[in-house]
């Protein structure tokens, strides 16, 4: 049976060119980039060249790129690192209720250590405003962490406006850009962010590698202790094959960013056109606000998410819900709960479709037709 993968917001297939690059470097370059002999210098050259690619992609300086094991570590380094480095200046942190758990759980841990955390509400489009951040700011605020684009519904936050607001405040500004990087253009200088998290596996790179952008002059306390790698900001021998492969994925993403935006808009239209033609009862979330082009979250009234996901999987369509199924129980999505309230039926009937490598209009239409048939059958 042919399967159609529509869950690229969860993870993406590795691009063939990226895989080839990984294997090439894995087989040819084993030196430690901290060694001074020829093997080490060769590894260092790969590392330095990759760092330049990442810096250029967000208009940063290469020295501002810190390699990590992925988005979770980048988020943790940003949040705990800032909280520890700034603890003499205050203990207040501002974030939102729809952040990735790498941010939310970090903030909860800091609360247990005596920090005061404000979790901003979002509207029905999954957005906050600059005014909300301004109202929450105090003289004790040391960190504001607002995600760039949401991984469940795709809503994008007013990052530039928040950056402008914080320009004259002591608070460090962090954004989790894991879902947005490689999909939309990012200029850290223009946005005014101090810290920015990225992960390779969201843009057809390998799992287990990412980076944290840290603006010059921003101090964070290291979370890993050992050697002096990454300018003593993140101990541990760098994963050269993964980093170089990640850089290759970034080059491809940057070259195709406009084409992908056009294609993803077309895929969304194909989904909704088929649903309209087949008489499907549905509602697209985040219609009246900026949204990441590759993520569309749709509610199907009259259905239950467990049955819908199982039937779609059996039909060869791989998607995700806004909920997490664990040990037979359903935990409502914290994102949809924040947007629509605890009693909303949309918590139990919403599906995330997310686009990426390997899709075309024909496959998306086929997936839409299968989804329409299943939704109509289940809704009866």
- The CATH class designation of the largest domain is Alpha Beta
Query: What is the CATH architecture term of the largest domain?
Result: 3-Layer(aba) Sandwich
Could you give a short account of the major beta sheet? 7 strands, mixed
Biggest β-sheet: strands ordered side by side in the sheet: 2-8-7-6-5-3-4
Element order, helices and strands? EHHEHEHEHEHEHEEHHEEHEEEEHEH
Return the average pLDDT rounded to an integer.
Answer: 95
| Percent range of helical residues | 40-55%
CATH topology of the largest domain: Aspartate Aminotransferase, domain 2
Describe this entry's structure for a reader.
GO terms for molecular function: cysteine desulfurase activity; iron-sulfur cluster binding; metal ion binding. Its cofactor is pyridoxal 5'-phosphate. The structure is a single chain. The protein is of the alpha/beta class and 380 residues long. The protein has two domains: 133 residues, Aspartate Aminotransferase, domain 1 (Alpha-Beta Complex), CATH 3.90.1150.10; 236 residues, Aspartate Aminotransferase, domain 2, CATH 3.40.640.10. Helices cover 41% and strands 15% of the residues. It contains twelve helices and 15 strands. The strands form four sheets. It has a seven-stranded mixed sheet with strand order 2-8-7-6-5-3-4, sandwiched between helices. A four-stranded antiparallel sheet has the order 9-10-15-12, with no helix packed on it. Helix 1 packs antiparallel against helix 9, helix 3 runs parallel beside helix 4 and helix 10 crosses helix 12. The protein starts with a strand and ends with a helix. About 2% of the residues have low confidence.
């Amino acid at each position: 049976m042919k399967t159609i993968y529509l869950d690229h917001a969860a993870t993406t297939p590795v691009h063939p060119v990226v895989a080839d690059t990984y294997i090439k470097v894995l087989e040819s370059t084993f030196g430690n980039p901290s060694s001074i002999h020829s093997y080490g210098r060769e590894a260092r050259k790969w590392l330095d060249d990759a760092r330049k690619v990442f810096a250029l992609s967000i208009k940063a300086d290469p020295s501002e790129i810190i390699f990590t094991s992925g988005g979770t570590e980048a988020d943790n380094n940003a949040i705990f690192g800032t909280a520890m480095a700034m603890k003499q200046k205050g203990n207040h942190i501002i974030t939102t209720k729809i952040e990735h758990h790498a941010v939310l759980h970090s903030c909860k841990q800091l609360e247990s250590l005596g920090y005061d955390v404000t979790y901003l509400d979002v509207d029905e489009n999954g957005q906050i405003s600059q005014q909300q951040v301004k109202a929450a700011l105090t003289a004790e605020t040391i960190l504001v962490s607002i995600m760039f684009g949401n991984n469940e519904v795709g809503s994008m936050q007013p990052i530039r406006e928040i950056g402008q607001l914080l320009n004259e405040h002591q608070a460090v500004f962090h954004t989790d850009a894991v879902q947005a990087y490689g999909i939309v253009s990012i200029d850290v200088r223009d946005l005014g962010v101090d810290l920015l998290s990225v992960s390779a596996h969201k843009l057809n790179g390998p799992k287990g590698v990412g980076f944290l952008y840290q603006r010059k002059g921003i101090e964070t306390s290291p979370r890993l202790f050992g050697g002096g790698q990454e300018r003593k900001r993140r101990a541990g021998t760098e994963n050269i094959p993964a980093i170089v492969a990640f850089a290759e994925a970034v080059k491809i993403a940057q070259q195709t960013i406009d084409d992908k935006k056009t294609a993803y808009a077309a895929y969304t239209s194909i989904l909704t056109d088929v649903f309209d033609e087949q008489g499907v009862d549905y509602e697209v979330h985040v219609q009246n606000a900026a949204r990441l082009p590759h993520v569309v979250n749709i509610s199907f009234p009259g259905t239950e998410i467990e049955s819908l996901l199982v039937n779609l999987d059996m039909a060869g369509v791989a998607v995700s819900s806004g909920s997490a199924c664990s040990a037979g129980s359903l935990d409502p999505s914290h994102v949809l709960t924040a947007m629509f309230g605890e009693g909303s039926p949309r918590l139990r009937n919403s599906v995330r479709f997310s686009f990426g490598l390997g899709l075309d209009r024909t496959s998306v239409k086929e997936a839409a037709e299968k989804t329409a048939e299943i939704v109509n059958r289940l809704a009866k």
